[in-house]
Amino acid sequence: SQKIEQNSEALNIQEGKTATLTCNYTNYSPAYLQWYRQDPGRGPVFLLLIRENEKEKRKERLKVTFDTTLKQSLFHITASQPADSATYLCAPINQAGTALIFGKGTTLSVSS
Amino acid sequence: KAGVTQTPRYLIKTRGQQVTLSCSPISGHRSVSWYQQTPGQGLQFLFEYFSETQRNKGNFPGRFSGRQFSNSRSEMNVSTLELGDSALYLCASSPGASGGYSYEQYFGPGTRLTVT
Questions:
Q1: What is the average pLDDT across B35-56?
Q2: Which site among A10, B23, B40, B69 is 20 to 30 Å from A106 CA-CA?
Q3: Sequence-distant (≥ 6) Cβ neighbours of residue B114 within 8 angstroms
Q4: Burial B89-99 (b: 16+ CB within 10 A, else e)
Q5: How many A×B Cβ pairs under 8 Å?
Q6: What is the pLDDT of residues A22-81, one digit of tens each?
Q7: In this complex, do A97 and B90 lie within 8 Å of one another by their Cβ atoms?
Q8: What is the pLDDT of residue B99?
């Protein structure tokens, strides 16, 4: 069955460091992959989308990579800040544009 | 543009009852997806509607159903509620048009359902 695994449930880093979150998928060949941020008590907020033919995508301090051979996406936050503390979810997207499965998320805590 | 709205925000029901949740997508968005979120299972896909037709369906029992109206508003219904149905139910909308459109989903704040 299709499966999404995010590397760890929790990640603690110091302010200013780079946070790297991992998303691995199996039995799936997504056309795209999205990353979302979710704060407690709120719905997820879209951050970045990367297509299968793109190796890397950047947006301000965020960077996403997509390796279809390894079936893995990496999400980086550079110069992390306490305000980046949240849960980050990855979601592969099928050709119709539907996110059928989400990872369980990695909760990032950035300490000052 | 106004965001995705969901009503009600909180709901308490008893086992065996049924419940209807409502979602109003962003104006112009034709795709509406529903998700169940629990601490143990994370975000799980229920179904997606596009132009009043169910386009995708997740692995949930038939007690979970939905529909979409011509104005893209959507409702989901859960019949014969069980304790395990207690969760945050999230609705997300996206443009859903073909060819070069954005796949990003805009989530509502969710409806917190508690079944006692």
A1: 90
A2: B23
A3: B10, B11, B12, B13, B86
A4: bbbbbbbbeee
A5: 62
A6: 999 988 888 888 999 999 989 999 999 998 889 899 999 999 999 989 999 999 999 999
A7: no
A8: 45
d(CA B107, CA B22): 13
CA-CA distance, A92 to A15, in Å (whole number)? 29
Quick one: tokens of B33? 């997806």
Give the type of residue at A77. I
* Distance, CA of B81 to CA of B112 (rounded, Å): 14
Chain A segment 48-107 residues within 8 A of B by beta carbon are 49, 89, 93, 96-105
Measured CA angle at A38 (ends B18, B43), to 5 deg = 40
Peptide bond into B8 cis (omega under 30): yes
Interface test with A, best of B49, B56, B104 (most A CBs within 10 A): B104
Cβ–Cβ under 8 Å, residues A59 and A49: no
pLDDT(B100) > 70: no
